[in-house]
Write a structure and sequence with these properties.
- The chain contains 9 helices and 17 strands.
- It has 365 residues and is an alpha/beta fold.
- Helix 1 packs parallel to helix 2, helix 1 packs parallel to helix 3 and helix 1 packs parallel to helix 9.
Length: 365
């Protein structure tokens, strides 16, 4: 039985699933219980969705804990945590709920397990309202590895809305402590590449049109870089259902990685999907920060747990980031400060997030 009990209002700020994920992970890592009420109160369908429930059940299983209020639609949950144990675990949303969000809640936990872990996560790999799996592999992984995180992510099957059916295998080794990170030099953009994809019965022409539109759009602003966006058809044995989309990646001279993506929808022209992703990528390179708007909030939990001071240069703070900072400060003794960057490379959108981490130690190692 956990000694400390935290309480969290799920309706504050961003008011969505992120509050659940950060709260559950930080409670599990610290061996505390947590009660969350007004779960996802800010959403059109409040309460737990299958994906959030799968994530909470996974955290419960990782630490042999107990979960009360664990059903779809529930607006109040209590998670009682125990010791985090390595081993093999499976979580299946049974929908197109995002496998990446399942990984977001569980990865910080298994870093503080007593032995290596293998997580088999099933659901959507390229889903709306969540990072695409390609983003996780190209941006999230190298960024969090800077904290001393060591994990492999094997994409077994892609799955799309509405059927899901995707699967990833995440293998992690535990850490003694996380290392703080300093990311304050953006450098220049040296490389832009990506992939536009179709799967199932959709014609390959859609991928070519998304790719061509994205290249044309980026060219208007960045004229001197070679841009390589492949147009691919996913292999039948590596994708489940029909889907199309695009992911674009930019790399800087100092090793910063940014990405943007968009998914095709019925009735939306492929060119529009390509242009949407291109505008998002450009927006995330204009502010001269070292992380994009989607990586920004995902860094917060690692900064809070790290042993020492982390400093990260970002663009405008997203509501997700502000929420993650609020939750981390409520549930740990981490201290965050956000200031405007004031150097010759900054503009009114450039910020520095600084965090004095708590130096969480893995007692099992």
């Amino acid at each position: 039985m956990a000694a400390t009990t935290f309480e969290m209002d799920g309706s504050i700020m961003e008011g969505g699933g992120q509050i659940l994920r950060v709260s559950a992970a930080l409670s599990c890592i610290q061996g505390a219980s947590i009660k969350i009420n007004n779960v996802r109160a800010g959403r059109s369908t409040p309460g737990l969705r299958p994906q959030h429930l799968s994530g909470l059940e996974l955290v419960r299983d990782l630490c042999a804990g107990q979960l009360e209020g664990g059903e779809v639609g529930s607006t109040e949950i209590t998670l009682t945590t125990g010791k985090i144990k390595g081993g093999d675990y499976t979580a299946d949303t049974k929908t197109a709920g995002s496998v990446v969000l399942l990984m977001q809640v569980s990865l910080p936990c298994v870093l503080f397990a007593d032995s290596p872990s293998v997580l088999c996560l099933k659901g959507g790999t390229n889903a709306e309202m969540a990072p695409q799996i390609d983003y996780t592999l190209t941006v999230f992984k190298p960024m969090v590895e800077r904290f001393g995180v060591n994990f492999d992510c094997d994409l077994k099957m892609r799955g799309y809305y509405p059927k899901g059916g995707g699967e990833i295998i995440v293998k992690t080794n535990p850490v003694k402590q996380l290392t703080p990170v300093t990311l304050t030099e953006r450098g220049t953009i040296t490389k832009i590449y990506g992939r536009a994809f179709v799967a199932g019965v959709l014609p390959h022409k859609l991928a070519k049109d998304m790719s061509a539109a994205a290249v044309r759009y980026i060219r208007k602003e960045i004229k001197d870089l070679y841009i390589n966006i492949q147009a691919v058809r996913e292999k039948k044995d590596e994708s489940f259902g029909n889907g199309n989309g695009i992911i674009l990646i930019a790399e800087s001279s100092t090793g910063c990685v940014f990405a943007a993506s968009a998914l095709g929808k019925k009735g939306v022209y492929a060119d529009k999907v390509g242009c949407e992703a291109a505008e998002m990528l450009l927006r995330n390179t204009r502010h001269n920060g070292c992380v994009d708007e989607y990586m920004q909030d995902q860094m917060i939990i690692f900064m809070a747990l790290a042993n020492g001071t982390s400093r990260i240069r970002t663009g405008p703070l997203t509501l997700h980031t502000q929420t993650a900072i609020h939750v981390a400060e409520q549930l740990t003794k981490a201290k965050f400060t956000v200031t405007k960057a004031e150097d010759q490379d900054s503009n009114e959108d450039t910020h520095i997030i600084e965090c004095q981490g708590i130096g969480m130690t893995n007692a099992s190692l």
